[in-house]
Structure formats: structure tokens, C-alpha cells
Design brief:
The structure is a homodimer of 108-residue chains. By secondary structure, chain A is of the alpha+beta class. Chain A has six helices and three strands, in the order αααβααββα. In chain A, 64% of the residues lie in helices and 13% in strands. The radius of gyration of chain A is 16 Å and the shape is elongated. At the A-B interface, α1, α2, α3 and α6 of A face α1, α2, α3 and α6 of B. Chain A binds a DNA duplex (30 and 30 nucleotides) through α4 and α5.
Chain lengths: 108, 108
DNA sequence: TTGACATATAAAGATTTCTTGATACATTGA
DNA sequence: TCAATGTATCAAGAAATCTTTATATGTCAA
């Protein structure tokens, strides 16, 4: 996703689709709580299952949603799988919202 | 929404709910395209209907979603209703993502 | 190799969201 | 007041999303 003015990005179907997917990944309470836990550093799925008292397959579903959006990455270590936030994509979102905000502050 | 560390915010049910709603509002392509148009300044619904070639009731539906989330505000002027972005809420989102990003960059 | 454990995937139903077409509401000008 | 216009709301169906239960996959230890 190039560093374009947001007004231009929001006219490019590809960027619009990508942004919609990113925001969708963040639009669910369970997923936001997962993000909250991952702020403490990489976490094993088992830790998250305990901390969020969500069923195992439910957690797996949401972890996949976050992963498909690129917000987290996973790493297998033996039987365990660890998930971690992907700062790059967070930076992307921040830049986008930041530019939108700047333009809006000027014009609105 | 207080200026808390994101890890703490994401443990507060109210904040989690609010954030999920904000992100949901941004998770639809039609709504993102509306935001793109509003970056050109306040717009009449009729302008948006033309620019996005979306049906009138469909547009109304999405404008309501953006308004309910607090991302835009509306102003009636005679028969016309104008919508504009709300920079404050954009700033809120930016701050949130920014803090998440910072923490993530350190720990991940 | 087998059994146990951690996680992922699949299938089905429940719920939510989106789209469309019809209708209601508000404002203006005649 | 009435007709025309711009916008909002409603109702119904379509589509997407989420939850749950069951099953599959992968890894380790015995």
C-alpha cells in the first residue's frame, strides 16, 4: 500500500479493499482483546485461551482472521503455536488514519 | 475514551466495545469511499449519490452507520443534508493505533 | 507405533449486516 | 394547500460473520 494521500487511496479499489479488510479484522471485540493480550508480547494460543476464556476453535477462528489481515504472525514451536503483533501493518493503519485526520482537520 | 495505554483500554469492556464499533464503521468499502469523498470537504448527500453511483437508500444506510459511530456529523440546509468528517474521532483512532503500534514495536 | 495433547479445519445453525424496493417525512415553491 | 424534491426509514431477502460441536492434523513422549 503506497504512501499516497488518503483521498487518492480511497479511490483505488485495491486499497479500499485492503483497508476494509484491515478494519474488519479490528472490528470484533474478541479480536481486539486478543490484540490487547499480544501487547504483552508474543503469546501461546493456550495462554490466550485461558486469559480470554473463549473456546479453542473460536479463538482459532479469530486468530486466523487477524493473521489473514496481516495483523499478526504465528510461529510453531513444538506442539505450541505463538502469535505476535505485526508492527508494520499497525504503522500502515496509523499512517492512513493520520493522513485522513490531517486532511479532515484542514477542511472540516 | 480516556488516553490510556492501549493494553489497559483493551481490558475495559466499554472501550473494547467502542473501538470495535469505530473499526466496524470503517470496515466497509462503500463507507470508506464515502470517507474519501468527504476529504474534499463537507458534501451533500446528492453529491455522494452521484459520485459513488450507489442507490439512495443504500447511501443513507451507510451514512447512518458512519454517523452512529461518530465519524461524521450532518447538517440540514433546506432540503439538503450535508455530511462532514469529524476530526476528533479520527484523532482518537489514530492515537489508539499509534499507542498499540508503539508498544508492539518494543515488544514484538 | 501408539496415545496424549495443542491447534486447525469443517459443518451447521444463529445472528448480524447489507441491499433493494417501497413508503414516510421534511422542506420548498407554486 | 398541494406537488415536487431530497433524504430517512422500513421490510424482506441475500449474504457474510460468528459460535458451537465434531473431527482432522501435527508433534511429542512413552
Amino acid at each position: 500500500m503506497a504512501a499516497l494521500l488518503p483521498a487518492r487511496m480511497l479511490e483505488r479499489p485495491r486499497d479500499v479493499t485492503r483497508l476494509a479488510r484491515l478494519f474488519h479484522a479490528l472490528s470484533d471485540e474478541t479480536r481486539l482483546r486478543i490484540v490487547g493480550k499480544l501487547l504483552g508480547g508474543e503469546q501461546c494460543v493456550c495462554t490466550l485461551t485461558d486469559a480470554l476464556d473463549a473456546g479453542q476453535s473460536r479463538l482459532s477462528f479469530h486468530l486466523k482472521a487477524l493473521k489473514d489481515a496481516g495483523l499478526v504472525s504465528d510461529r510453531r514451536e513444538g506442539r505450541w503455536v505463538h502469535y505476535a503483533l505485526n508492527p508494520d501493518v499497525l504503522q500502515e493503519i496509523k499512517s492512513f488514519i493520520g493522513s485522513v485526520r490531517e486532511v479532515a482537520a484542514r477542511c472540516c
